[in-house]
Amino acid sequence: MRDLGVGFGYLMKGQRWVAQHGKQYGMGLLPGLITLVLYAAALVALALWGAGLVGWATPFADDWSSPWLGLFRGFLTALLFALALLLSILTFTAMTLLIGQPFYESLSEKVDIAESGHAPESGLPLWRDLWISARDSLRIVVRAALWGVLLFALGFIPVIGQTVIPVIGFCVTGFFLVEELTAVALQRRGVELRDRLALLRSRKQLAWGFGTPLAVAFLVPFVAVFLMPGAVAGATLMARDLLGENDGAGAGEGGGEGAPAHGGGADGQGAGFPGQGGAFGTGRPA
Questions:
Q1: Alpha-carbon dihedral of residues 82, 91, 210, 270, nearest 10 degrees?
Q2: DSSP helix/strand/coil, 246
Q3: What's the CA gap between 241 and 271, in Å, rounded?
Q4: In a designed cystine with 7, which of 92, 136, 206, 261 is the match (CB 3.0 to 4.6 A)?
Q5: Alpha-carbon radius of gyration of the chain
Q6: Where does residue 8 fall: left (phi above 0), alpha (psi -120 to 50 degrees), or beta otherwise?
Q7: pLDDT tens digits for 51-65?
Q8: Tens of pLDDT along 72-97?
């Protein structure tokens, strides 16, 4: 249970870090604002023309008598909008990180420098980093969407669907949020997606402590925009913890000296992960 509090602590430390570095915070807001405008436009368009889309997709119901036609198409329209809203929540972080890759890379590097005096680099060109980020984000979005559809269906179960399933949903969403956010720092260290997931699964409570309250906050789009820079900063601190780089460095209190770097160095080659019962190979393919 201790890791739940530690994870939440990293989220708060990240918000404090950007509050103390106004320039990085301001730059980190831009990708979230762009993504919010795009998603809001898509949802407004769906709200305006969703009923027409459902009508076009269900011509077999044209001859149904009232009120069944209206109830059937009204239900499908509401279901379509609910699924779109759920998908927008699940993909908001991935899309924001993709749009803001250069901004968040710079922010994450500055957090690393503040903690240990140097920032690991992937050694890859920007286009290659963007490709890897987009590829991994798509894989995570697919996994998250499958979970979302399953949990949405389970939500129709009486009592459990209205109590237990929403809690599980926030935990699942929080886990995937943490994967996306820590990927900014871990990708620079050459840690592949499968190994990032293994790291987070080994400390699920740490991931839930960070990601679950963030998932709840991200239900409000404007809140998501303002929390994103701090979430990236906090996720960088947590990534250092996952790789053991905070040992003896104050665990994110800032400016620690002589923190041992267990992650990849400037050549992009990863090292073994502490506490994993062995070492993974994390070198990224050229």
A1: 160
A2: coil
A3: 14
A4: 206
A5: 21
A6: alpha
A7: 888 889 888 888 888
A8: 888 888 888 888 887 787 778 778 88
Q: Which pTM was predicted?
A: 0.71
Contact 23, 109 (CB under 8 A): no
Averages of pLDDT over each 10 residues, the chain, 286 residues: 90 93 86 90 91 88 84 87 79 81 87 86 74 82 83 83 86 90 89 90 93 87 85 94 69 38 39 39 39
Which of 172, 171, 195 is CA-nearest to residue 243?
Answer: 195
Residue where the block lists tokens 């994870």: 7
Q: Output the 3-class SS for 166-226.
A: HHHHHHHHHHHHHHHHHHHHHHHCCCCHHHHHHHHHHCHHHHHHHHHHHHHHCCCHHHHHH
pLDDT value at residue 258: 37
